Amino acid sequence: MKKMIAFILATISILCCFSGCTTPNPDSDLSYIQEKGTLVVGITEYAPMDYKDENGNWTGFDAEFATLFAQELGVAVEFCVIADWSKKFMELDTKQIDVVWNGMTITDEATSNSSVSDPYVINAQVVVMKADAAKNYTTSESLSGLTIAVENGSAGEKAANAISGATVVPLQDQAAALMEVAAGTADACVIDITMAHAMTGEGTNYADLAPGISLTEEFYGVSFRKGSDLTAKLNAFMKKLKTDGTLQNLAQKYNLTLTD
Description:
By secondary structure, this protein is an alpha/beta fold.
């Protein structure tokens, strides 16, 4: 009986070799994504990285970049809003999402909780306040005593917490932080410079707000699960898009600066 089972297994193995069938690697994120046919991208909504166009479709630099990567993998892309940014790595680990791709600042927290791609866009955390007040605050020390809105679990929250004497108010996302300043319930907010340039000033919904001083200089990266083979896959794809000019064209479209 044992010899018969061994013979059957050997025959199946030989047939697989000839037919080209393979056994999926249970430890491979790439195999997992391709088998289910969808790359679930964790985001929050903010321009110019991920936001909805007039037809309700997701667009923006990261949305377009992620879509191109999904096409490279031969799968569909699905965008999933992360309700609580501070729980993004938990959602990643539990496979509610497959990747965090949303203007994510590369931090020690990110590198210790996920597999982070090469950096691709230059960013900074900036203070945004009423345009007529911004000129009065030229140092981080001058911000002491202010109420500052931030996105919970963000690099902006970390930067704001370093301001001595400031009252930091964590909110759901950067858009909510901007709204607090516009409403006058916060003196300022600390958000990504990419969003600050896209969402404030003449021709925007926040024409009376303006970015002030920068608190940090940083880089954006993409987070996959720890040990994921998708990280190397994206790094190679990113290099290809930089070489052929695709990524630079996207950066110009959304007024961003790529890393070297």
